[in-house]
Amino acid sequence: MAGAWGRSGTFLYVPRCSGTLPSHRVELWAHMNSFPDRKLIIAIDGPAGAGKSTMASRLARKLGYANLESGAMYRALALKAIEWDKSFDDEDALVELARNSRIQLEPAVSGNRVLLDGRDVTQRVRETDVTEGASRVSVHPKVREWMVARQQEMGAGGGVVMEGRDIGTKVFPNADVKIFLDADPVVREQRRLQQQNLRGNEAQLTAAELRLRDKRDRTRATSPLVPAPDALMLDSTSLSEDEVLRRVGELVQQKLADSCV
Ligand code: DC
Questions:
Q1: Lowest-confidence range among 7-16, 33-42, 122-131?
Q2: Is residue 72 within 8 Å of residue 105, measured between CB atoms?
Q3: Which residue's CA lies nearest to atom 13 of ligand 1?
């Protein structure tokens, strides 16, 4: 077997493609970046509040990959519809709007910077009216077709962690790693309210909106939120962020190992 003795005295197996696989005694992430010629596509799907964004951005940083939040693209289109006074129900007008828009995602340390026609709308697209609009514009098949094509272009070269609702089922059905991250609905709600520091009436309203959005995302006719049959199901209800990241890391490591032996 080809290999070398690592500094810690551990034998490191050197597979046919370049890079080294860590033995169990070596820290999980230490050698992940030593597979420069294997640029995986990692798909992370799940409902709001399951911890996708945090996990996707931490994972991308660990691997030196780009983290792309596909939901931000639906948010940007919803914002444009608001600004151009188009109905969230008018599929043709929305597609026309999308075709005439420049929606850019720029991976940043905490999530994505979102640009709409060159303007930074990162904060604006997180507001309540846009959040609801994003879920509503995303029910339309022609809007989804446009979005999916853009997302496929963005991730085609690999080296991406893309998160959303249909990444493992529609955008990248052949993704190297697919994760479906879920959590108990009450816990997801609490996490969201804590993140936004909401109490009282405001908290109740936001929780109700989250439930409605969840239902819409899971029951829409086109590409509803469902796990891909080959996705790893992870329930984060009683797991810490570190624990979720560790489990995903193991899966990625396994994938790299499998592709190199
Ligand atoms: O992930 P997010 O909360 O930013 O997504 C906003 C909305 O966009 C979500 O309610 C449903 C829609 N969406 C989608 O339909 N498909 C995706 N891949 C990502 C998001």
A1: 7-16
A2: yes
A3: 71
